[in-house]
């Protein structure tokens, strides 16, 4: 009974047990999450929570994202007082005055940044998104974004360098900080700029409007285009004369530095405070704070979301869905008809939940200063249930609207505005690859092939929209993706394939068979609620819990043939185009590195070196930046399976193993498992100019909740084989 997974299941059961929902005086149910516009005290995301041992968080809140005058630092008399104390009252008023947008905008979330690609003309293409409350905003004229850069100015960060001292932590000024001295861009004089200095303005384009009980809210998208110069540049931007934020773009011949993460939330039943170290307001912030500290030292150009950028399981707690959720038999839930009230509740949940997560804590700081590139993955397991359940009205609506809001909030795309034509010049996103129609959602797949530098590109393969129990991606999607990667420039040596779920990872075939069996005793007991085991069956269709996760895996019985075919297609591509393939994944809540390589049949033959082996492909697994690691028993099981060399692809002259990367624990002690690291983590990636290698530095949390990490580095060599 000391299994933390067991306790999480029981806690989730207790949390889901609630009184029947009651309608309010207006006839509507009270939403699980109902947000108000962001406080007038700031219009941008809050600063990173500063470490303060004396701070005690409000245990009832997932995030604390409001700032009030009481939170402002006090001027303390004596030797340790701030330089602010030496200013006059007028100077303090001028310097500490919190900027407000003009014309006024009442923000729900934002600004959020997204990177698209660099086109053939050397233009950096990206977007900014804000969501504003119509009742409290002025749209005459439309919101306006101003951005500036100077190719000849050094790129030292205008924020102060990160620092740690005891229980304090700071990444410098931010629009929510009362000590921010950054004026709006249009009010700034051009003194100190070179003759190459540029400033551009771009109006907001309305791409959608959400209407709910709380009013109407507009999604504004701003297009950003920056000609790359010989040197790396800092780009400063502001909206409607408000305080400036900044992000970085690489030099014209520079390969990007970037960070990757996955699983940005806690599973049901996990107590976030268990992961909150001294001084942090929530357990969500510590590892994000570490990422931002590294960004302050060596700025990242993009932030790659590898799945589960937020967790949306909470949609099932909305009061309008309780009648459906509490039906005793899966057949009744499957046949339950979708009502307008339930449909509106699903939209309400997604809108409020996205706003809450994307405007809260350290994560909000990241997505306003590091342009995002995200793959689909906010509907965990969708597509991996039986077809009749996937087509049931309510479940289908949950998946369909989840994908719509993924495109909207994470890709800044509205199909109704942007269309489905991915030919050059037809879509707002130049990197997009539109695939085949989803079998259970009214959208085709949206993959992206984006530029990371002269030697590096990334494919974010949409593994969700077209998923079924016996399919990850359709042949239409594969054909269009392969057509595009074969057109990559000759300078490209590395292609990172972001696939969400690991493709080279220890098998769980025996567990998949056991959980899928109709004779599984745990499922029988769970369906009856016996021995407190109701949490061991899925809340939707009463199959074994975890079975949908196992069915999601590339190595699941229904996907194994497709997986092997896909790997062989990429091997052929790598050989012909002389490009190194590296997979990047998340999902499994631990760090690992899988390896595909040429199978050597004779022991006396050492085989090709990794650099000369076109089949040598690493699978970097980085998960989770927030969520809890698997229970110790699961980690032990996966570790024991990691030593096995799989023969699945021996017919294609391919071996599959795991890399023993984790020889020590973060504290220096001998590791219990060299192959699997069960701690929270993220990954820093850069290109080595001297060797041509890609460096993947998996940053693992030292101790739970303390907000600092230790790096475990693995490198992928550049291709050194000759094409046939």
TrEMBL record:
Record-annotated PhoD-like phosphatase domain positions: 241-513, 525-698
Its cellular-component GO annotations read: membrane
Annotated region (Disordered) at: 1-29, 45-72
Q: Which PANTHER family match?
A: MEMBRANE PROTEIN, PUTATIVE-RELATED, PHOD-LIKE PHOSPHATASE DOMAIN-CONTAINING PROTEIN
Give the InterPro entries listed for this entry.
Answer: PhoD-like_MPP, PhoD-like_sf, PhoD_2-like
Name of this chain's protein? PhoD-like phosphatase domain-containing protein
